[in-house]
Amino acid sequence: MYYIIRIELLENTMPNLYHPEWDEQVGSCGKHGIPMTPCPQCLAEKDPDIQVVLTAADRTQLDWDLSFKISSMFPTEQAWLAERVI
Q1: Single pTM value for the model
Q2: Of 6, 10, 14, 44, which has the fewest Cβ atoms less than 10 A away?
Q3: 3-state DSSP helix/strand/coil % of the chain, to nearest 5
């Protein structure tokens, strides 16, 4: 007897973004005073302090789908974040 196991990969996953000025509890950016995290202004400026941490789901998708790239996890205008993975 054979069992078929279907592994469904997540589409449109987004890794976790961190910045020392982002207060997740309050939900705001201390640098720009914008009440959002991630801060759109920090992203627009490509702030060098932004760090990207892959989730377990992100790592699983990368392991199972060899054609999937880290840069595909971000919108096209934010593909530069792929270089910030720690």
Answers
A1: 0.75
A2: 6
A3: 30, 15, 55
